[in-house]
Each structure stands twice: as C-alpha cells, then as structure tokens.
Amino acid sequence: MLKLLLCCALFAGGYAFNHGQAQLDFEAYMRDFHKEYANSAEQNNAQYYYNYHKNLITQHEALANRNASSYHVKLNQFSDIRLKTFAARLPQSVYPSNSFHTMMPVPPMDQAPPQFDMLANTMTLTAQDQGTVCSSSWAYSLAKSVQIMNALQTSNMKPLNISAQSLIDCAGMGTGCTTQVPQIGFDYLTQNPGTSLVTETEYPPNNSINHEGMCLPTMTASNIVVESYGIIADSNDNLLMRYVASGFPVIVEYNPATFGFMHYSSGVYVPPVHAQASSSQFLVILGYGHDTQSNLNYWRAVNSFGSTWGEDGFIKIVRSPTQPIAKRAIFPNTLI
Asked: Out of 30, 51, 145, 286, which residue is the most buried by the measure of CB atoms under 10 Å away?
C-alpha cells in the first residue's frame, strides 16, 4: 500500500511540474508575440491550440531531423489558432473580369540559368508583416515587387519599404482585408497617371485592424510610378523562371492552408497533395535554385508574415513540374 501511495505521489508531482512548465512556456509565447486575449475563455482556447501545435511541431521536427522531411517548422504568431481559423483569415481571392493598362510584357531572356537570386548582390530586403487579422498580402506583395524592381534599376541596395497600408486604404475598394488581389492595386496605380507610391515613413502600417482604413492624403511621394504591369499564364513555370531571371519580381497566389506553411521555419517546403481548405496568400518570387541536402529544386519567395516566420520572412517552395507555382502571376512591367 505504501509503495502504491508513493508511486501515485510521484506521478502527481511529475504531472504538476509538467503542467506548470507548460503554463510558463505559454506565458513566454504570449510575451514573445505580444499576445493579448479578450477574456479567460479566449486565452484558454489559445493555449489549447498552442499546446496542440507544439506537439505537432515536435513530431514533425523528429522527422525533419532524420531527413524524413525536407523542411522544418516552429512556433510563431499563428500557433495559438486552429488551422481552420488561419485559413478563414486568408480567404480565397476574388478577381475582376477585366484588366486595364496591361502592356505586352518586356520580353524575358530566352533561357534561364540553372539558378538565380535577386538578392545575391547584397540587397537589404526586410519581410513586412501584414499581421494576423487582415488578409492584405495582395498589397504587401505589390509594394514589395515594386520596391525590389526599383532597387534593381537604381542599384539601391538599401531600399525603403513602400507602404502597403496606403494601397489597402486607397485601392482596397472595400475588400482590402479580405478578398482583394494585386491586379486591383496595379489598376489603381496605372489608371491614375502620376500616382506615386509612398514609403512606410510617410504612410505607416497598421496591421492590428481587420478592415481597411480611410485613405489619407500624403505630403510627399517616393517618385516611383508604375506605368504598366504584365501577366503570366497559369502553370507556365518556364516563362515565370525566365522573367524572374530577367530581374522581374513576380507575384503569385499560393494556398497557405496547411500546417506546414502555417508554421514553416526553414528548408524546402513541399505541400501536401490536398490542402484542407482553399485560401489565398500572395508571395513575391525572387529566385530559384537547388537544395543539395534534400536534392530538391526550389523557388525562393518573400512573404508578408514578418521576419519571425520562415527564413527571416522568406520561404523556399519545391519547384516541380507536377506542382506548378505560376498561379495568377503578375508583375510590375515598367516603372517611371
């Protein structure tokens, strides 16, 4: 009987210690990602999914460390919500029936080199953060593509971030935080001759609200004017590669509704054959190459989940003819 009581006491003590450590870990997570919850019920729900995802991450990392997975995952700003909620916050985009001011794209090089990276010339590029409540990657990807193209054209290795918030507020058309697409932003810029993009210093971001704000007047502009944009047909990855290698940062629509993308940390991400939902996140393709460790070809893209997600905000996605990435591909064609 004494042995049984001692065993139960040891078990209870061990459980209390583990539970206490779990609480401390969640509190540290809240501090690290500046989390605040409306009430105890909401916090308890967040802690449940934090613990759930933490266990899944541990399981995945055990596979990745044995080279049974080509990519790694980690806790991030999305770890306290369920995958279904993550997908719902990035609803599938809705496209207009017409396009305006689209010119024939500048011809790319005839044949792309085996690998290419726009940032290989030591350009300093920071991944911006759209937050967790506004599906605004359409605006962030547009701003980033123009920023990169202008930096390459002017040999500016430390370009200032262009304000995505100005596009959300001024070109969002009521859906700037839900189902909007980059084409609407490009149409807004090209249909209004002389419209210049502004920097985040002039028009600061506000990623804590779940709706677009009022379009504010600006005192100064960046003098970067988008004259036209180009489009690449769906699934034409060969043409996409040629344009990227020619120095065009191309925006693509990607489905992020998977645990792996949601928690991506490093390596070459290989999506499952079937995602659990259909969502939209716009990425800017900056290059491509080959990963020797996994023996996989990849695309390199910058996301707008901030620098704590992925490889300092960037991601490598498997490059394969069976999983084309060219979807709704669009890019700034000419800047003046």
From this structure: 145
Say if residue 193 is in the same domain as residue 49. Answer: no
Instruction: Give the C-alpha separation, 81 to 77, whole Å.
Output: 9
Number of domains in the chain: 2
Q: Are 116 and 106 in contact (CB under 8 A)?
A: no
Q: Are 223 and 92 part of one and the same domain?
A: yes
Instruction: Output the pLDDT for position 194.
Output: 72
CATH number at residue 76: 1.10.287.2250
**For residue range 44-97, what is the model confidence (pLDDT) as tens digits?**
999 999 999 999 999 999 999 999 999 999 999 999 999 999 999 999 999 988
> Which pairing describes strands 250-254 and 281-291: parallel, antiparallel, or unpaired?
antiparallel
**% of the chain at pLDDT higher than 90:** 77
CATH number assigned to the domain comprising residue 125: 3.90.70.10
Answer whether 265's CB lies under 8 Å from 291's CB.
Answer: no
The answer to whether 223 and 208 are in contact (CB under 8 A) is no
CB contact burial 197-216 (16+ within 10 A = b; e otherwise): bbbbebbebebeeeebeeee
Query: Among the three residues 49, 81, 113, which one is the final residue of a domain in this structure?
Result: 81
How far apart CA 64 and CA 207 sit, in angstroms, is: 33
Where a domain ends, among 81, 96, 123? 81
Domain that holds residue 94: 84-335
This prediction's pTM:
0.92
- CA atoms of 89 and 74, how far apart (whole Å): 20
CB 167 within 8 A of CB 140: no
Other CB atoms closer than 10 Å to residue 251's CB: what's the count?
29
